[in-house]
């Protein structure tokens, strides 16, 4: 199976979506077992997903006054 299809499946799984047509959990696992590049890609994607989740959680944590902190204005 093509690495691009596996990476799409990994991304979908990390996003809580179903696997794309033609990709089964068994095929995904077998490919990841055999392909070091896709295993590394999955690890990096998982790390990024977890990091973004932590940032979102930190950004919505209420302050002492009970309000979420304001986002800084962006200037370009």
Q: How is this fold's topology laid out?
A:
Layout: H1 3-14, H2 25-34, H3 36-59
Helix pairs in contact: 1-3
The ordered H/E elements are HHH
Spans of at least 5 consecutive residues whose pLDDT stays below 50 are none
Number of domains: 1
Mean pLDDT: 87
Number of helices: 3
The number of strands is 0
Q: Mind summarizing the main beta sheet?
A: none
Globally, the shape reads elongated
Class of secondary structure makeup: mainly alpha
Helix content: 55-70%
Strand content: under 5%
**What gap, in angstroms, lies between the N and C termini?**
44 Å
**Rg (C-alpha, Å):** 18 Å
In terms of quaternary structure, what is this?
single chain
Features:
3 helices; 76 residues; 0% strand; elongated; mainly alpha
Molecular structure report:
The chain has helices at 3-14, 25-34, 36-59. The protein is 61% helix and 0% strand. It has one domain (3-59). The chain is elongated, with a radius of gyration of 18 Å. The N and C termini lie far apart (44 Å).
Please summarize what this structure is.
This protein is mostly helical and 76 residues long. The protein has helices spanning 3-14, 25-34, 36-59.
């Amino acid at each position: 199976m093509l690495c691009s299809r596996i990476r799409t499946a990994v991304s979908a799984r990390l996003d809580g979506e179903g696997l794309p047509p033609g990709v089964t959990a068994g095929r995904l696992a077998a490919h990841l077992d055999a392909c070091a590049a896709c295993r590394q890609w999955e690890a990096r994607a998982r790390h990024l997903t977890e990091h973004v989740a932590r940032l979102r959680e930190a950004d919505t944590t209420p302050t002492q006054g009970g309000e979420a902190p304001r986002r800084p204005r962006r200037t370009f």
